[in-house]
Amino acid sequence: MIDLSNKIALISGASRGIGRATAIRLAEAGADIVLNYVSSRESADRVAEEIAAMGRRVAVVRADVSEQSDVQSMMEFVGNEFGRLDILVSNAASGGFRPLLSATARNFEATMNTNVRALLFLVQAAHPLLERSLDRAKVVAISSHGSHMALPMYGLIGTSKAALESLIRHMALEFGDQGMNFNVVQAGLVPTDSTKMIPGADQMFDARTDKTMTGDRQLEPSDVADAVLYLCSPLSDLVQGQTLIIDGGAAIHI
Ligand SMILES: NC(=O)c1ccc[n+]([C@@H]2O[C@H](COP(=O)([O-])OP(=O)(O)OC[C@H]3O[C@@H](n4cnc5c(N)ncnc54)[C@H](OP(=O)(O)O)[C@@H]3O)[C@@H](O)[C@H]2O)c1
């Protein structure tokens, strides 16, 4: 049984999808939660209500993680309200699905800023709070198969995920001896608002049972949250700079 009682966890992009499932899972394990969102205030409030009903302390903070000043303000809030941070989950991402030939400089920058640079800003701003963690502090970033596989319309996002995984490894190298763990959860295809918008989504979801070795048991946001929970717990204290793949076996074969 993983017990995160008295831990304080911040999850970026926790109003929906995998971020929401992660916030709930960490709260179920006992953590107090800071929920970040950028536009879906009502959804974020609903998640907060679920968590408060468990008896956990919960705060909802609007911040665009691609904006350094927003991230800095969010961490100042965490410092003032909670005094430290034990767990940081960098989950928020965007980017849109588009062919590379029509990708503009603006598209490229927006994807990289939200999906990669945000992790750098989050860790820079959180570092003094993570240093005050009760035990080893845990930083987990959410990546995808696109970091090492080519997927239709996924060029920009896949590129950002490859950079994200490299950034985590370098953070592990630079700060891993300061009582902090930096790891990645790489998820397979999960039904969320963002994946419903992928061109050809229906066919991709239909093909999941052929790719995985888990029959009708297909990946849900809560499965990804379980992997994050492990990497946020003392069970993974010796796991450093790694990528944990949770996809039912989809990525090990053609
Ligand atoms: N779904 C999949 O199949 C899959 C597979 C592998 C990896 N992933 C990764 O898992 C993570 C979550 O994906 P998802 O499918 O759960 O996404 P989602 O349902 O589209 O939710 C995205 C979340 O990110 C937030 N967000 C977006 N841009 C933001 C910004 N600039 N600042 C702060 N928050 C922002 C959104 O907040 P608002 O609601 O306020 O807009 C929302 O909470 C992403 O990193 C994604 O790449 C997903």
Report the CATH architecture: 3-Layer(aba) Sandwich
The value of Rg in angstroms is: 17 Å
When the domains are counted, the total is: 1
Low-confidence stretches: none
The helix-and-strand class reads: alpha/beta
The CATH homologous superfamily corresponds to NAD(P)-binding Rossmann-like Domain
How many helices does DSSP assign?
A: 9
CATH class: Alpha Beta
Helix content, binned percent: 40-55%
Small molecules bound in the structure, each named once: NADP nicotinamide-adenine-dinucleotide phosphate
Number of strands: 7
Question: What do you see in this structure?
Answer:
The N and C termini lie far apart (36 Å). The protein has 254 residues and is α/β, with parallel strands linked by helices. A seven-stranded parallel beta sheet has the order 3-2-1-4-5-6-7, with helices on both faces. It has one domain (8-246): 3-Layer(aba) Sandwich (Rossmann fold), CATH 3.40.50. It contains nine helices and seven strands. The chain has helices at residues 17-28, 41-52, 68-82, 105-130, 155-175, 193-196, 201-206, 208-211, 221-231; strands spanning 8-11, 32-37, 58-62, 87-90, 137-144, 180-187, 243-246. Helix 1 packs parallel to helix 2 (41-52) and helix 1 (17-28) packs across helix 9. The protein is globular, with a radius of gyration of 17 Å. The mean pLDDT is 96. Bound molecules: NADP nicotinamide-adenine-dinucleotide phosphate. Residues 12-19, 36-40, 43, 64-66, 91-94, 114, 142, 144, 187, 189-190, 192-195 line the site of NADP nicotinamide-adenine-dinucleotide phosphate (NAP).
